[in-house]
Amino acid sequence: MLAAAVQACSVVIHWLCALLTRQNPLEMKRVKVVVVGAGVVGSSTAVCIAETLTNCSVTLMGDRFTPDTTSDIAAGILICAPFPDIPLERQQKWFKDTIDHLLTIAQSEEASDAGVLLSSGWQLHKSVPVDKKPFWSEFVLGFRTMTDQELKRFPNHKFGQAFTTVKCECSNYLPWLEKRFRKAGGQVVKQKVNNLQELSTQGYDVIVNCSGLGAKTLVEDSQVYPVRGQVLKVHAPWLQHFIRDGEGQSYIYPGMHSVTIGGTRQADDWRLEPDPGDSQNILERCSRLEPSLRRARVLGVSVGLRPSRKNVRLERELLLLGGRQVDVVHNYGHGGWGVTLSWGTALEALSLVRQCLYQRPPSSRL
Amino acid sequence: MLRLSRNTSRGRLQRDAIGFLSLACSTPLQPGDAIVRQLANQSNSELKHSDMRVAVIGAGVSGLSTAQSIFEQYHSLIIPLTIEVYADRFTPLTTSDGAAGFWQPYLYDKGNVQETKWCKETFDYLLSFLRSPDSIKMGIFLQSGYNLCSESAPDPSFKDSVLGFRTLTERELELFPGYSYGWFNTALMVEGKTYLPWLMDWLRERGVKFYQRKIESFKELVDSGVDIIINCTGVRSGDLQFDPELTPGRGQILKVQAPWLKHWIITHSFTAGTYNAPYIIPGSQSVVVGGCFQIGNWSEQNNSEDHQRIWEAACKLEPSLKHAQIVEDWTGLRPVRSKVRLVRESMQSGQSKFEVIHNYGHGGFGLTIHRGCAQEAARLFGEILELKDWVPKSSL
């Protein structure tokens, strides 16, 4: 409903501008926006822009699309750790916006199409943590400390938290987002972008950089580095709860069609091939948490490189590219929290794009 | 190999004789030695009622688990202990098979604290298997979910039995428009279609025999030499012995494919009555959708009007079901009774006196209460043995 109201306002303003500048409103130049990167962050950002800024033409551009993005490997459970240098309220808003958006989908008829489901479970700690409540604890459902009776099942752990969060499976969610994007008039282009100049040459006015790990070369950001994650998909349909060990070393995430177990966190490791030693190790660690996994059939193994950065980069800059002034909004470096922060950072990226447009000369505004 | 009875009178005779002979011989005697066997046979003829035939009627969860409890507690005290299970329906065709397999008693026990205790005993028993990888073979796993009410209500009788019991938060209630109160907890699933075959294998491995036939009367079994009858005939107990308090509580369920659902959702309407309000219970293979409890209805046929009503109510409760594929319907008759009949009864047929232990009338909570009741039935079995002097009081 909010999107519709904004849409109505922007149309009115467009016509008013046209009247003031004595231009035919229908001939006013549409702002060309390109979103680079078609993972969960790029796709979410593209949808937000296309649905809200209806007088922009929006293109989603990437060299890889679902099911070949990093997001497709992710289990998609909404949990995260804080970035050290970003105000907590801002991160909280990102988390809250994302979970609220996904909860609405989970309670709708679209839930199964979109791959969104409620997931309850336990986060376990071997010793009592200093911070007993993560910064997002009030945004998930029913967050509480585990009872002694509940902890009995996990003899190696002294403390735990129980809550209900959302699981968002990108192999369904990304195609669902793409449908929404196209419905809002968006264009999808499969193309590898080597540098931002190319995009300026192609006539784009605003570049939204959601290139994830690709930002390392695309915008020469040396702070970006991969954190390799290997996961196994197993057949264990009797598992209904997630179990996560403290810092996320080991986790069990039941999904729609399989259970994802993991993981590894290997910084600066670019290997995309599965490592059999890692698989063995993951099975062993997870079976200790959940003994019934010893009876589970392994369906497959995958590897993803988390696009990590000390802090996510979500900001705008004005660049001179190929003789043109081009607005660039960066939205990358989400590490292992891409799905978790996707909608919230997309909304903030949208507001940054809007700012860019308001600061343009009148003829090309909106 | 000859096994010596540990605590029976016959056992004591055997040991006394062997002890004397051992003293007389230079090498100690072993149970397998021929002379020991001879002694045991001699002791047999001096005692009566040393072996026993127990017939369990009914192969649902109550019959099978009672057979298990009796075997567990008495197989080393009574030798030989012959246990036979008679039923016209075996898994996967029993009422226990069709049920979702969700552990939860009715919200309130209405003073039947014994039943609450048996349900808790069952929960604790099933929970103890969870650390074993074999829990899958038994069909046991944990699942959390929501009990929803349209108005605030007292805490349910099972709040201390389950894990992590708490009231629902405002945000959680927003997920369920139309419901303003409720609880969240983690409970157990025990799926009949897996649990019953596991029980049968367990019993078969221990020499229990199964016979597929409908028993028409207790007399039939007594005439064939059965000593004690365990009556676990569920909703059709009335065929063997008239019981005005027993009535069917017809339930129809839809089995659907909705693998994105990981929580059970049970709604409660204090006007419509227990289980006449929609419920959704995901399982390991499919999701059970229900909300039908018709007292006095004996029809085991699926009804299309019930199907429609159940489906519409469930989709309203959980909109994502709209895209679920409906696999099939199933109808079962809950063996409803004001309270569970779990007592022993001395009966007579002609000149023969025999004992019956009744264990039926578990309504919609058979799987939920089965172990507690089976253990109680085994305790009643022990009472019978004491009375009949099969086993001295001190050994129980």
Shape of chain A: globular
Oligomeric description of these chains:
heterodimer
- Radius of gyration of CA atoms of chain B, rounded to a whole number: 24 Å
Low-confidence stretches of chain A: none
The averaged pLDDT of chain B comes out at 89
Low-confidence region ranges of chain B: 1-14, 16-26, 35-49, 392-396
The count of helical stretches of chain B stands at: 11
Q: On the 0-100 scale, what is the average pLDDT of chain A? A: 93
The largest inter-chain interface, given as chain pair and residues per side, is: A-B, 37 and 35 residues
In total, the number of strands of chain B is: 15
Number of helical regions of chain A: 11
Helical residue percent of chain B? 25-40%
Spatial separation of the terminal alpha carbons of chain A: 20 Å
Structural class of chain B: alpha/beta
Helix and strand element order of chain B: HHEHEHHHEEHEHEHEEEEEEHEEEH
Protein name (chain A): D-aspartate oxidase
GO biological process, one term (chain A): D-amino acid catabolic process
Family (chain A): Belongs to the DAMOX/DASOX family.
InterPro entries (chain A): D-amino_acid_oxidase_CS (IPR006181), DAO (IPR023209), FAD-dep_OxRdtase (IPR006076)
